[in-house]
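Entry under discussion copied across for reference:
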Amino acid sequence: MERSTLDKERRKFPRFTLDFPLDYQVSDGPGAFGGIVVDGSEIGLRIHSVKDMSVGSRLNITVMFPKEFQVTNFDVVAEIIWKENYSTINWDGYRYGLKFVSIKEDDLEKLKQLLSDHYRM
């Protein structure tokens, strides 16, 4: 078996490809910033952002997504568990792996529904 298949089989919570905007604020930090959710599961997200942040930082996050004919969101507090420089032809920034620290039950239900509506990676 190839490595990517083995990695997927070891995951307790499946990871799904996503493409949604998010707003976040570093806990105890000034100002809000934007980014993109690239993929996610019930326990964390992978995001892209231009802001340089440290592993271990906690973020207050709002993820916005379409639901029927309107935009809705869920909120979560997450910790950065890994970081990589990330560049494309038109964009330079960072890729972050986030683990949820806290999420309200109703926001978790929104996330589960969102994930069930998308294809697995």
